[in-house]
Each structure stands twice: as C-alpha cells, then as structure tokens.
Amino acid sequence: MKKKFITIEPKELKIPDLHQTLLGLVSPRPIAFASTIDKEGNPNLAPFSFFNVFSSNPPTVIFSPNRSGKTGKNKDTIHNLMDTMEVVINMVNFDIVQQMNVAACEYPADINEFIKSGLTPIESDLVKPFRVKETPAQLECKVEQIITLGSQGGAGNLVVCRVLKIHIDENIIHEKYKIDPHKIDLVARMGADFYCRASGNAVFEVPKPNQKMGIGFDNLPDFIKLHKDLTGNELGQLANLENLPSSEEIQNFIQENQDFLNQFHNEHDKILWAKKELSVYPNDTIKVLKLLMTLK
C-alpha cells in the first residue's frame, strides 16, 4: 500500500493534541516510578514515562516530570527533587501496573501515594526516599542537575540522575547480572491509555552488528535483493552476514544437501521455507542465503 504522509508543524497544534501525537509516535517508553521525599519527610510516589538510561560510565538515567498541561504548575516530584536532590527510580512490571496507575493520580502534596496504591515502602541504603518493595528492581540516585525546558504547561524538567546503588530481585537474573526479559516482565507506556508488556512473543532477538561487519544490502545479489516476496526485514537479516557465500561454497552446499533440496518443487517453495526459517530460526541465516543463491 502506498504511503501518504501528513505534515505537522508543532506550533499549529494545541499542546494536548501535540502531546498525544508525540506519545503515540515515541513509544513504547520505559517507566520511571519515582520515589521522592519532601523537607518534612513526607514520601511521594509517581510514574513518568519520559525516561531512559543515558550513560554507563558514569551510570546516569534521566527522567522528566512535565509541568501540568492544565495548570502549568510543576508537580510535587520536582519540588521534592529541588529540596533534596535525591530519588529512587523503581522499575515497573506487569504485577504492579494497576497499583502504579493509582499512584499516577494527582493527589495533594500531603497525601502518601504508597498508602493510596497499597505499595510497600522500604528504606534505601544511601538516599532518603523509600524503595518500592514490590518492584523487581530499584535505582538509588543522586540528582546532579535539573534542566528546565520551559515555563508553560507541558514543558519538561530533565532530571539528570547519578545511580549510586542498584537493587535487583535475584529471580530475574539469568546469568552474571544479565536480566531475563521474560522474568522481569516490564511494562511500557504508549499513547493515550495504552501500555505494552515486554515479555512472551513481544520479546525477540536481533543480533548486534557491533561484533562484525555486515555485507550490506548493496552486496546482496539482485535476484535476491529485488525479489518481490522478500521483505526489508528479511533482507536486512541476510545483509547482516559477514560474507557472501562463494561459488564453491554454493556448489558444496548443493552436493551435500540433495535430500533437503529435493523437497522443493519450485522457487515459490524455496522462498516460503526461507521466510519461515528467518522468522523461527534467525541463527540459520547463512543456510537461508545459500538456499536463495540457488534461485539464480
């Protein structure tokens, strides 16, 4: 289907409309479930989806509590951060998404969101704000900088946080500090009232190209690159291989796999097998390319 784009100048939209457009496009977004505390020691707990990790050395995360779109005022979280310069960022998984949503309500400053959401505060080791016991991991942070992006409703406040200590539920680790995505079962924010769950069939692997140099689309033979039944993603898998098989390798492949090749009656059968293999067994990419090379 031919694409037809509409073009938007941000200044032409009302802020709520622009806000929802951006949220729908830039998604899914991880959620910083931020625990803060005010000067009197009153806890606050609120989720923010303008959030990510930006550095490992030094370990740095940034999240942004925006000014209220209705009143233009900063949220309690920002006031607390300016007072204490400390925060705990708790990870949000599927088990607590509904409780997190309760904490998202804009309660008055003297209301304790831990009590409202039914979540359990536990003491941190290095900072004053509490951790959330039910979350799969927590980051104790020192706020290094708050960058204000504007003074009107919807304007962000970039909170630059140095991670001082990390707490991880050992049940979600599968090897040497590596997190099992299915066990941590994170959720992420999308546009409007939509979320997504990062587990099950939603999680898939794409080998990183930084350990090798792929041959690229330009080195794929035209009869493969221009084939009407192969998608850009499928060709991308082939283009990420380090080498194009030589003529000798293709001949050896044909000689050594006669029984395998005899199951294909025509080109269409080979293409169907290649597409399925790339989808189900992405590590067999070189075998798929060798088969496709026999189409010529």
Describe this structure in a few short sentences:
The protein has 296 residues and is of the alpha+beta class.
Q: Could you explain how this protein is built, in words?
A:
The chain is α+β, with helices and mostly antiparallel strands. The protein is built from eleven helices and 13 strands. It folds into two domains: 191 residues, Pnp Oxidase, Chain A, CATH 2.30.110.10; 85 residues, no CATH class. Helices cover 29% and strands 23% of the residues. The strands form four sheets. The chain has a seven-stranded antiparallel sheet. α10 packs antiparallel against α11. The protein is elongated.
> Which sequence of SSEs, written as H and E, runs from N to C?
HEEEEHEHHEEEEEEHEEHHHHHH
Shape: elongated
Number of strands: 13
The number of helical runs is: 11
How widely separated are the two ends? Answer: 28 Å
Task: Note poorly predicted spans.
Answer: none
Number of domains: 2
CATH class of the largest domain: Mainly Beta
Helix content: 25-40%
Strand order of the largest sheet: 2-1-5-8-9-4-3
Largest sheet: 7 strands, antiparallel
- What structural category arises from helix and sheet content? alpha+beta
The CATH superfamily name of the largest domain is Electron Transport, Fmn-binding Protein, Chain A
**Average pLDDT number:** 93
CATH architecture of the largest domain: Roll
**Approximately what portion of the residues adopt beta-strand conformation?**
15-25%
